[in-house]
Amino acid sequence: MTLAAPRNFDPLPRRASVAVDVGGVIVGGGAPVVVQSMTNTDTADIDATVAQVAALSKAGSELVRITVDRDEAAAAVPRIRERLEHLGLDVPLVGDFHYIGHKLLADHPACAEALAKYRINPGNVGFRDKRDKQFAEIIEMAIRYDKPVRIGVNWGSLDQELLTRLMDENAEAGSPLSARDVTREAIVQSALLSAELAEEIGLARNRIILSAKVSQVQDLIAVYSMLAERSDHALHLGLTEAGMGTKGIVASSASMGYVLQHGIGDTIRVSLTPEPGGDRTREVQVAQELLQVMGFRQFVPVVAACPGCGRTTSTVFQELASKIEADIRRNMPVWREKYPGVEALNVAVMGCIVNGPGESKHADIGISLPGTGETPAAPVFIDGKKAKTLRGPNIAADFEAMVGDYIENRFGSGSQAAE
Question: Which residues form the IspG TIM-barrel domain (predicted)?
Fold first, then answer.
């Protein structure tokens, strides 16, 4: 049999975009795709906001957006910035402004200075004759304080005058488009026209990021594809109102994964609705995992584990895989500093003899636990070679210790000195 020539399934080349410096984090210009998140605390509650920003930053969020919706929130921003710096956290803060952003920035210069970026929505920055004036005031503040701006269109608050005009023009056309297509065009035009106006006012092109937030997968793919064709601005990706749990994760991954594969997107946020009392850092973890499984970046060691079947009635391998993953997430803030390169580690925790040994050999360090009816022995493979066979009631704890030793030996200061 003659083999067919291989098709290229690698990601398309990254779209050329203008680089934007956001408090020392580069977005666009070929830089790695940046992960960001947003707090859901009342920004005026300084203690709660500092705690959540710190948690998001330690989880790996490289930018954190906070709501600035009233005077008390604006007044709290510089104090939040100071508290974070006291904790040794220099994560850039992005101010989210709606309706009265122009007034808050003017009335609270310390807030305007403390933020690394302003996010404004052209659909609610002002209405009718006030819209351009108030938009211009925010842009002028960004110029004064040398801050980049994200012009973030959202179809839940789309400029109705623009949409109405495009709908009327479409109705008069010989072959009218669907209302959905017109709405997509209005979203894209709102972003591009707003960016053009910002540049006319004097904001440099390398101080502008665009986003077009929609809540359906196909709409996200369409509007970002259109933006990428018609602009070289850096693009922020995100599916707004993605939802809770697996629905939000799947929808965000399906939509953003497609456009990322096509070279589109410079920074992402996974907008998950948290469970009541849930962990806000979940959205950071999902964003990191999306970029990591697609091969764009590496954030944490990968733990491969089999799904389980009738051969694996014991839950030991499930518990061990879960515990190792949790340990990795908990330790990564320290490991990033102590063990450079540890994010490239691959660990395998397998449940039976069928694929266990083979998968373990492919990992940097892996264990093949005994399945139902198998000899109660667990071979451990390191760098593709069998290193030890674990037995007895402490297999899980013994393997955890071996993983720790492997990390120290491979990524610790001693290994670097030996090199």
Answer: 19-288
